[in-house]
Amino acid sequence: MTDSGADVTRLPRTELRERQNSRLQETVRHAYENVSFYRDRLAAAGVTPDDVTSVDDLTKLPFTTKEDFRDNYPTDLFAVDMEALVRIHASSGTTGKPKIVGYTENDLARWQEVMCRGFEAAGLDTSDTLQNAYGYGLFTGGLGFHDGATAMGMAVVPVGGGQTQRQVELLSDLEATAICLTPSYALYLAETAAEMGYDPAELPVETVLYGAEPCTEPMRAEIEDRLGATAVENYGLSEIIGPGVAAECRAQTGMHIWEDQFYPEVIDPQTGDPVGEGEEGELVLTTLTKEALPVLRYRTGDMTTLEYDTCDCGRTMVRMDSVTGRTDDLLIVRGVNVYPSEIESVVLEFDGVAPHYRIDLSREGTMDRLELTVELAEEFDGDRSALRKSLLDRLSNVLSLEPDKLDLVAPGAIERTEVGKVQRVYDRR
Ligand SMILES: [Zn+2]
């Protein structure tokens, strides 16, 4: 069932649809026959595998949620015996139990294959050296990228997260042409390189593969500018496979979802109904080939839109927009709905501002209180109060947001994250 990456990503959509339909039927049957959770859920919805003959029937099926993973901890969602597994990962459980995910040998092979498609889309080949700055271990990021790059034949430098000065020295000495990491860490790496006396833009990195955190276009531009590289986004989540669900090509117009493996829908997070084509909503994914852990209609919590027209690169597979926010990240401040990424976009419009900020929310009596702290750019030598006023005006005009406090702080004043995901929002309400 392996496909050559180059061909399958350019399949005519009618052929792709046939493949999706037959794989969906197999997946639903596999889940129904081997996972009691799905057997019960489908029974409760009055659906049998025979009722699902094409992706148009998906809406008959109930959603799977992250709570379902937690309720079925550790391995009750697995569709194979433990002997059939060759790998187990877990998502970071910031609250409660982690989500445990498992892979058969075929699952690992497909994971490598989708990673290779992403590398190809990013313009990488066997002559590239990839420095992997994602954390190894239970987190899927490190080993996902590592195995994919190895399968493709790139040289991998498995540094993992942290040790930033060492990362910079290795990048420079081993001449890695590509690096994979979170967007906030890419900026921190550039900063550290500058402190060490390097010109970050002169480092050998030509391609930055970033992901695992939301990243706005102005943030991407900062990364490209500072590292003198092309930055492309990657998307994935452990519950579906890990990294490798979707990857951006050099056209930089959204991430191609590898649709022959993962079927995407976009729904209204409130009603659960599908939204119209090109409209924003919550991404829902169904695995089409997974053996150990088939997942039907998983609510990712990630807000995005899908573009179905053929990309400039010639690939026919749908593109998803950079994730604008997670349904559980939505901030409601005095009745105004806003995603942290929207605040980021506004803040980074200003040249005098560095791409580092934090949002503090608290409550005074019954009133929300919003404090925004923004770092000044190293080169800023203008009028602080004028910058402050323009920022406040812009936040008010674009987002109807009026912070109770806006602090402009010195470069480097906001704490950096070396390992794991950056935290920018502190909600103490
Ligand atoms: Zn493309």
From TrEMBL:
The keyword Nucleotide-binding applies. Pfam families: AMP-binding, AMP-binding_C_2. The keyword Nucleotide-binding applies. It is an enzyme of class 6 (ligase). It comes from the Archaea. Residues 60-285 form the AMP-dependent synthetase/ligase domain. Pathway: Aromatic compound metabolism. This is Phenylacetate-CoA ligase.
